[in-house]
Amino acid sequence: MVPANQAHVTLRVIDVVHRPPPHETGYRDSELKWAMSRSSALVVVSAVTMAGERTRSGRIAMTIVIVGGGHAAGQAAASLRQEKYEGEILVIGEEPHIPYQRPPLSKQYLSGEYGLDRVHLRPARFYESKDIRVRSGVRVESIDPDRRRVACSDGAEIGYDKLLLATGARPRRLAAPGGDLPGIHYLRTIADVDAIREDFQPGRRIVIVGGGYIGLEVAAIATKAGLLVTVLEMEDRILKRVTTPTMSAFYEDIHTGQGVEIRTEMRAESFAGSDRLSGVVCAGGEVLPADLAVVGIGIQPNVELAEAAGLECNNGIVVDEFTRTDDPNIFAAGDCTNHPNPVFGRRLRLESVPNAMEQSRVCAANLAGNPKTYANVPWFWSDQYDLKLQMVGFSTEAERQVERGDPTTRRFAVFYFDGDILTAADAVNSAREFMVARQLVGKRVDSGKLADPGVDLRAVLQAAT
Ligand SMILES: Cc1cc2nc3c(=O)[nH]c(=O)nc-3n(C[C@H](O)[C@H](O)[C@H](O)COP(=O)(O)OP(=O)(O)OC[C@H]3O[C@@H](n4cnc5c(N)ncnc54)[C@H](O)[C@@H]3O)c2cc1C
């Protein structure tokens, strides 16, 4: 029987399925616009198939399932539409949010300057308007590559034609006695920051374990919020993993000038406290009193889902320049990937927004049938106080460096070379120098002219070979 309020719609039977419920038939509940029981059969009148299965009417509906809820997942979904892909897109993310960006978490969201709306990559209405379905709060538990199906934490089994893994990464945990005490935080998600903010009271003592970008960004916000901040770094300088002594020294001066205590060559061994954190115990026995701690000691890629599906993983999900895994129907993008970089001639696993965005764009183009390869020069940024640091390439591997500008003015750039070839740059409050450096990486550049603020950057760029 046709419901009275829908009687004006013309019926068009496109398929007959004998075994409801919908998720078993390959149809989505919401898409079962017209269905009538006729003996044991369900007559589907207007539906979009899942799993790219051929309906009896002969139609093939391609479905792309994206696993993840971060930058890579959100960008891939949007880029698929930009690439004119018209099939189904389903984004499945385990966090209870629409896709969001993480950089503000240690910056404007931690300080309270941004609300959630500015953390979301795009508003919810964007996904509706582009016919992109987002299932938040649902974890993909497993992949069956042979049947091209994923099993979800809510019991659903969902078919795909192509699957994109954008599972990102999670914080590396500090395996130390007392590590589960309340007051000890990690920082990767909105929920993590909400918890930190509850503990973020002026006058409280915060110990930040790890002097990398995230730790230092938290230090900057915490000191501005009136907390007493100590940064513990086990290496002999902060930022050692990612930049040169010049930049480490600059940032150490900036932070100490703001009242942050930086303790290098200090390893956190355990956490003190009975029902809540009271201090961080360092190797050697010194106890640093602490009301809260934030641990930022790196991340590890979320590869378990891929590994269990038999995909090659090696410090990330191994993909080729088209972002394909070793299963032709499964792609991966973002922090979770180990990918080839032709500019540097080796494989990389990157932890940055530009990588997540660009790799997702490339992936979307390939999924939409517009072949494209990923060949970007890695870059990254960090905001601390009034300083915007923009980095391109890998400065730690350079043979020599030149500076342009004066660090005491808080506006300068350091350019790094292998012979005459520019390989990397760090630019502080110097957007122009950074933009030029991005174009110069891999080129032969006159370092003397680059170091001379009197020489126009355009001239340096034009002369580069
Ligand atoms: C606090 C912070 C500050 C940062 N600041 C900067 C910055 O200033 N500049 C910069 O370039 N980069 C910055 N980064 C790094 C940048 O945010 C990451 O490189 C980027 O988030 C990577 O995006 P992604 O989508 O690959 O992974 P993620 O953002 O990690 O997203 C992956 C998502 O997948 C979900 N997921 C994983 N497994 C499953 C599953 N099985 N089922 C369903 N969902 C799953 C996860 O819950 C997560 O939501 C920062 C990161 C953090 C944490």
At a glance:
The protein is an alpha/beta fold.
Description:
The protein is of the alpha/beta class. It has 3 domains: 54-171 and 299-378, FAD/NAD(P)-binding domain; 184-297, FAD/NAD(P)-binding domain (3-Layer(bba) Sandwich), CATH 3.50.50; 386-463, FAD/NAD-linked reductase, C-terminal dimerisation domain (Enolase-like, domain 1), CATH 3.30.390.30. The chain has 13 helices and 29 strands. A 5-stranded parallel β-sheet has the order 6-5-4-10-22. A 5-stranded parallel β-sheet has the order 12-19-13-14-15. A hairpin with a 2-residue loop joins strand 28 and strand 29. Helix 2 (71-82) packs parallel to helix 10. The protein is globular. Residues 67-73, 92-95, 102-103, 105-106, 139-140, 166-169, 187-188, 214, 302, 305, 334-336, 351-354, 356, 380-382 line the site of flavin-adenine dinucleotide.
CATH level 4 superfamily of the largest domain: FAD/NAD(P)-binding domain
Q: Would you identify the CATH architecture of the largest domain?
A: 3-Layer(bba) Sandwich
Low-confidence stretches: 1-60
Overall pLDDT confidence: 89
- The domain tally reads 3
Q: How much strand?
A: 25-35%
Task: Identify the overall geometry.
Answer: globular
- Helices, by number, come to 13
Q: What would the CATH topology of the largest domain be?
A: FAD/NAD(P)-binding domain
Indicate the structural class: alpha/beta
| Subunit arrangement of the protein | single chain
Q: What small molecules does this complex bind?
A: flavin-adenine dinucleotide
* Beginning-to-end CA distance, first to last residue: 74 Å
